[in-house]
């Protein structure tokens, strides 16, 4: 999408950009989902998976023609969801704006950050008492900002809170005062965090590892396969992912020391050999908490592994962090099916899913996001300052 946006931007012609900024109930897309409509009427992306695309397309065309930026709500209740086109009964807030070098001069800098995999957030004013400030953009980096939300004071205050959201991978709407006051209302800012892809560390260069590496890449992970045996850990067997030849425990310890493993990392131990997986799991279980830590093996293998880990000094509380045998009960047999089982458990851990069949469950299909989760992309309205790690302040 960003490449297409940049192409339209460089052409000098306006395009229409529609972005989901907030969702409620069973909305089909997450905040940050976007649709781009170019001057010739071409479309890329989606804001609803088809439900309200026609209405959003028309609004994007109006933005190209000169209509001011606007925040539109689609979907009100289950009773009239079919009338507005959102048949799932959810609610979407969609911000529609014109995209051009005049309206968004900082786009090229944002695209460069994304291309280089640098963490960056984009703050966009989607509501303000002064209509001329709606649509203003601020590109927020770790050490600087580009653009303006209408005043240096607002840039400083919102930039500070946007960095807090970026640090947690949070995407959502900030509610604050007209100049970014944390105790106030009137300005709404959509903050879209672009954090580097989460890592998946796969230990053991096996056929199951090859299948899981493909699944991990498909899910958007930055995958590394590590094995101490050079004859098995080759680029030919694992195309498109990083391959490391090293003792698994030594490699993981080095990655932890370098700060290259965080709360979004998934660690999958497929070595199935105690001389490798016990030292590796000892390092993993005593390190910082990661999003997912699982080990392959039968229940007998798990019992033997747990005994060895306890003998090495790992506590029962630490062992509770380990998912073993890893994966959901899908009846998997082949390496590819097993990889789906593991990936399904990672997804369930990410979003709090039960792994049960949806047809046999009740309640909402999509769970409310939780900012406490390192995976989360929040769709709620967030009080400004809630993510800064400090108490709210009074700002004049």
TrEMBL record:
Domain XdhC Rossmann, first and last residues per copy: 200-346
InterPro entries assigned to the protein according to its UniProt record, in alphabetical order: MoCofactor_Util/Proc (IPR052698), XdhC_CoxI (IPR003777), XdhC_Rossmann_dom (IPR027051)
Protein name: XdhC family protein
Any Pfam family: XdhC_C
Stretches the record annotates as Disordered: 374-396
Superkingdom classification of source: Bacteria
Domain XdhC- CoxI as annotated: residue spans: 8-75, 115-175
Organism: Gryllotalpicola kribbensis
């Amino acid at each position: 999408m960003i490449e297409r946006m940049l192409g339209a931007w460089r052409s000098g012609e306006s395009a229409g950009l529609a972005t989901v900024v907030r969702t409620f109930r069973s909305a089909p897309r997450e905040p940050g989902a976007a649709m781009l409509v170019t001057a010739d009427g071409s479309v890329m992306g989606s804001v609803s998976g088809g439900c309200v695309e026609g209405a959003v397309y028309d609004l994007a065309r109006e933005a190209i023609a000169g209509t001011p930026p606007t925040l539109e709500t689609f979907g009100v209740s289950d009773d009239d969801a079919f009338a507005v086109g959102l048949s799932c009964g959810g609610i979407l807030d969609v911000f529609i704006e014109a995209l051009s070098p005049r309206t968004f001069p900082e786009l090229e800098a944002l695209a460069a950050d994304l291309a280089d995999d640098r963490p960056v957030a984009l703050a966009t004013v989607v509501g303000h008492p002064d209509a001329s400030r709606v649509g203003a953009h601020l590109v927020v980096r770790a050490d600087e900002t580009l653009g303006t939300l209408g005043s240096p004071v607002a840039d400083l205050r919102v930039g500070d809170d946007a960095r807090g959201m970026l640090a947690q991978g949070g995407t959502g709407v900030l509610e604050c005062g007209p100049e970014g006051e944390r105790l106030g209302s009137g300005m709404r800012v959509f903050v879209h965090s672009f954090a580097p892809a989460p890592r998946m560390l796969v230990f053991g260069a096996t056929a199951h590892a090859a299948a899981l590496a493909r699944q991990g890449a498909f899910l958007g992970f930055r995958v590394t396969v590590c094995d101490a045996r050079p004859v098995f850990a080759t680029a030919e067997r694992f195309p498109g992912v990083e391959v490391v030849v090293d003792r698994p425990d030594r490699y993981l310890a080095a990655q932890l020391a370098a700060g290259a493993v965080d709360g979004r990392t998934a660690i999958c131990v497929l070595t199935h050999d105690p001389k490798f997986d016990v030292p590796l799991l000892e390092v993993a279980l005593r390190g910082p908490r990661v999003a997912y830590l699982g080990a392959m093996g039968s229940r007998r293998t798990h019992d033997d592994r747990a005994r060895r880990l306890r003998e090495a000094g790992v506590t029962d509380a630490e062992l509770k962090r380990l998912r073993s045998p890893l994966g959901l009960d899908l009846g998997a047999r082949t390496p590819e099916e097993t990889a789906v089982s593991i990936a399904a458990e990672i997804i369930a851990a990410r979003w709090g899913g039960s792994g049960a069949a949806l047809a046999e469950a009740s309640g909402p299909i999509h769970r409310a996001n939780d900012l406490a989760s390192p995976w989360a992309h929040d769709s709620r309205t967030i009080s400004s300052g809630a993510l800064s790690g400090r108490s709210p302040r009074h700002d004049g």
